[in-house]
Design goal:
mainly beta, 619 residues, five-stranded antiparallel beta sheet, disordered C terminus
């Protein structure tokens, strides 16, 4: 597709424009399928990001989770059957920044901005364990050392829905936090990791959502985060350890911070008293920043980054750090540093001094590497090679979108179809990139304007996305739907002719002007043959256009329309005379527009036949 120049300037075989069509098979261009929605009328939440979660522990919990910076930092569990979004807890402010979620071990991490940082630049991570049972407070419990059993004295309220939930048990000296991996009775559960210390006469909480309050207060903030080398790594984070947000958040846009390893001891930290922390170390403030008594120096500044715009990983070997116009990578092994200027086992190198990332919402893992949107192109990084995916007219078209004020809403990657999808404002949908042949097409319709996506945690060939549904000034104008299944887009044979909100998929194809070449030698065609395969109850409209001055805005631009009936069970070639367009012009162009009742459509070829000679000699 190349829409930024006149059709007559395109070489033979080029497509001038294609909306809601696919170019993933050589010699064919096909109507895309529609998206689906569990319930088009279920609009109960404003979910901005999405995590497909699958635990690797004994409990094997799976689910879709999302959070919102628009509605008081709510974190939701999303029902794939009904589309319902059930709040797991509220934390943060309506003006919060919501970053891309990720999985770390058996926890999901959804960075949201807490209320205390509403004027700052950072997020406080909310951890989810995957459980869906109602949270409750354990008024008395016992934890045995080196035994993975926790017994609640009262209340006795454990249910099957707590499988995968986060549990915290504490007394005056010890705190344990872990995950519930088995509910053995209403008063007993098994946990992981196995507690190292006994805790008697304890109280605690059982929660599906582990709010940042428990994690260590408001002193920790970050815009971006990833799981790397069994550590949590956050970027665009606080400058130095501080005991309280009252000291100021003071974000550092070029800084990385990382946690201890799970095998490393968590230090004692003075809060209301001296506590020994046990369980999953990375959940504690001491494991990340320490406090004024026990600071940690697990951080790295990249002064020339120019302000971090995203983080991603390529396996456990490379941490990719994006700036607006540059890209860096950290290789080697992260270390736990208890003193400043500790010896480093890693290095930070620049991948590119002029390629950056325009938005973290564009970053996707694809084909074992990364793909993202820069200000001038779409880029792919394999771990050793950085490659631009657009060139020529398509690159200029993409640049013109961003220069014209378009913003990136979100992105997606269809693993089984190897398509990268970029959702932007201003074009009522998105751009689809076939990473096998680099073909580019557009999508339209509000259901395809997404904010985030995630593969299904059970079946990765299924692709889910979320979008806002309201029409206020703080969100794009969209209607209906909040959880959308996108993978049917790439299955045109499914005869799914509507998007998840009920809008019909109306495809549109526009060829380059034919024949091409110098005007003095252009041949004049008497007819055009359109070979296609169509299913449905309606006929797409073929518009044949000739132009004397090769200018689609000129009054001499002439059109002839024709219906393309259903082909039945086999492909059909329909031939339409264009002699009445001649000798008005040397340029012929074909546009085919679908209708609301077209199930599938494949354009197999265009043939300009029965040439009447060259320009100036037609009868």
């Amino acid at each position: 597709m190349a829409r930024d120049i006149a059709p007559y300037e395109l070489p033979d075989g080029f497509c001038y424009d294609a909306a809601d069509m696919l170019c993933d098979y050589a010699g064919k261009i096909r109507k895309r399928g529609g998206t689906t929605s569990p319930s088009a009328s279920n609009r109960t939440a404003t979910v901005e990001n999405l995590l497909g979660f699958r635990s690797n522990g004994l409990d094997a919990v799976t689910g879709l989770f999302g959070s919102s910076g628009k509605t008081a930092g709510n974190v939701y569990v999303l029902d794939k059957t009904t589309g319902a979004a059930t709040s797991m807890g509220t934390y943060g402010s309506a003006a919060g920044i919501v970053a891309k979620p990720f999985q770390h071990g058996n926890y999901g991490v959804l960075p949201i901005q807490p209320a205390a940082q509403a004027t700052g630049a950072g997020n406080g991570p909310a951890f989810i364990g995957g459980g869906t049972g109602a949270a409750f407070v354990v008024t008395a419990a016992t934890v045995a050392a080196n035994n993975n059993r926790v017994t609640a004295v009262a209340p006795t309220s454990f249910v099957a829905g707590h499988l995968g939930s986060i549990i915290q048990v504490a007394n005056a000296t010890n705190v344990y936090v872990g995950r519930i991996v088995e509910v053995t009775s209403s008063s007993a559960v098994r946990v992981e990791p196995t507690p190292r210390y006994a805790i008697a006469g304890a109280s605690g909480n059982v929660v599906s959502l582990f709010l940042p309050d428990y994690w260590g207060g408001n002193n920790v903030g970050a815009r971006y985060g990833v799981s790397f080398q069994n550590r949590l790594v956050f970027g665009y984070t606080s400058v130095a350890p501080s005991a309280s947000i009252a000291n100021g958040f003071n974000p550092e846009p070029n800084r990385l911070r990382w946690t201890l390893l799970p095998t490393e001891a968590t230090p004692q930290i003075s809060l209301a008293g001296t506590f020994v922390y046990d369980g999953d170390n990375f959940l504690y403030r001491g494991a990340f920043l320490g406090d004024t008594a026990t600071p940690y120096y697990n951080y790295q500044d990249i002064p020339s980054l120019g302000g971090m715009t995203g983080l991603a990983t390529v396996g456990d070997g490379q941490l990719i750090i994006f700036g607006p116009t540059s890209t860096f990578r950290l290789t080697g092994q992260l270390t736990t540093n208890t003193v400043a200027n500790n010896a480093l086992n890693y290095s930070v190198d620049q991948i590119s001094a002029n390629v950056g990332c325009v938005s973290s919402k564009s970053i996707q893992y694809a084909r074992g590497g990364l793909i993202w949107a820069g200000y001038d192109n779409i880029y792919e990084y394999s771990g050793s090679k950085l490659s631009p995916l657009l060139n020529g007219r398509n690159q200029r078209y993409f640049q013109d979108l961003l220069r014209g004020g378009a913003t990136i809403y979100g992105s997606a990657y269809a693993v089984n179809k190897n398509h990268y999808y970029l959702s932007l404002s201003g074009i009522q949908g998105g751009l689809m990139f076939d990473l096998d042949n680099l073909a580019t097409t557009r999508t339209t319709g509000p259901t395809t304007q997404i904010f985030d996506s995630a593969p299904d945690p059970v079946d990765p060939t299924k692709l889910w996305s979320v979008r806002w549904w309201d029409t206020t000034t703080t969100a794009p104008t969209m209607t209906k739907g909040q959880l959308i299944q996108m993978d049917p887009i790439w299955l045109p044979t499914s005869a799914n002719k509507n998007d998840g909100d009920g809008t019909a998929v109306l495809f549109d194809f526009q060829s380059s002007s034919q024949p091409t070449g110098a005007l003095a030698t252009n041949k004049l065609a008497a007819d055009v043959g359109i070979t296609y395969d169509s299913r449905g109850t309606g006929s797409p409209t073929a518009t044949l256009r000739a132009d004397t001055k090769l200018n689609t805005n000129d009054a001499a631009y002439v059109t002839v329309t024709a219906a393309l009936p259903d082909t039945g069970s086999a492909a059909t070639t329909h031939v339409y005379p264009v002699g009445n367009l001649l000798p008005d012009g040397p340029s012929l162009e074909v546009r085919i527009t679908g209708n609301a009742v077209q199930d599938t459509f494949e354009l197999l070829g265009l043939d300009l036949g029965n040439h009447q000679g060259t320009e100036g000699y037609a009868s």
